[in-house]
Specification:
Elements: H1 9-14, E1 34-36, E2 41-42, E3 52-58, H2 63-67, H3 69-79, E4 84-90, H4 102-112, E5 118-120, H5 125-130, E6 134-135, E7 137-142, E8 147-151, H6 166-175, E9 190-191
Parallel strand pairs: 3-4, 4-5
Antiparallel strand pairs: 1-2, 1-5, 3-7, 6-9, 7-8
């Protein structure tokens, strides 16, 4: 397998139901057919021209996820011109939590002025493949589609208390062709309930 190939999602689903989180260095599992709040369909291949992807497992109802709306928009604005694409993924089941439905996702994206794709992971296939432990869990994927960082966006839900911008540090390293100094941090937020 070359560095640019990814594991098909179907192969990952066929494995034992181990929901362990993918680690830095792992090949990012491919995904296709996720509906975005803009009505388009997206997959990992949609972003093939991007130098890096920031995949964020998010939520409509989680206070932590809500607190990061502005920071996600600023990250896209600050790094988009350098080939980075932020992608938020909602893997919560709308049957358990009606606030997680696609129409509510559309409302949330509009209210928060999202400048990046916000995708519905119906059936939780992508979440099962990546193994996020909560909503707000970040995976940084490089040009070769390897995970280079996983964990928190930064170290504080309240922006004025941030002292360590972990994701920005990781992005700067990846874009400069360096190893990520801290490839894993502990994410925090709300539970992601698998059904």
């Amino acid at each position: 397998m070359t560095a640019l190939e990814t594991h098909p999602l179907q192969a990952l689903e066929a494995e034992a139901p181990d929901r362990s989180t993918l680690k830095a260095g792992a090949i990012a599992p491919a995904f296709e057919g996720l509906r975005g709040v803009d009505g388009r369909t997206y997959g990992l291949s949609t972003f093939g021209d991007r130098a890096a992807l920031v995949l964020i497992f998010s939520s409509n109802r989680c206070p932590t996820a809500k607190a990061y709306a502005g920071r996600m928009n600023r990250l896209q604005a600050d790094y988009g011109g350098r080939g980075v694409q932020v992608v938020a993924i909602n893997s919560n089941d709308p049957h358990l939590y009606p606030d997680e439905s696609l129409p509510r996702m559309v409302e949330r994206a509009r209210e928060d002025g999202y400048t990046f794709p916000y995708l519905e992971d119906r059936g939780q296939r992508v979440a099962r493949a990546y193994g996020p432990t909560c909503t707000f869990h970040v995976f940084l994927v490089d040009r070769d589609r390897r995970i280079r960082y996983e964990g928190r966006f930064d170290d504080a839900r309240l922006e004025e208390r941030v002292t360590t911008p972990d994701l920005r540090h990781a992005l700067d390293n990846v874009l400069a062709g360096r190893e990520v100094g801290v490839p894993k941090t502990r994410p925090f937020g709300c539970s992601l309930d698998f059904v």
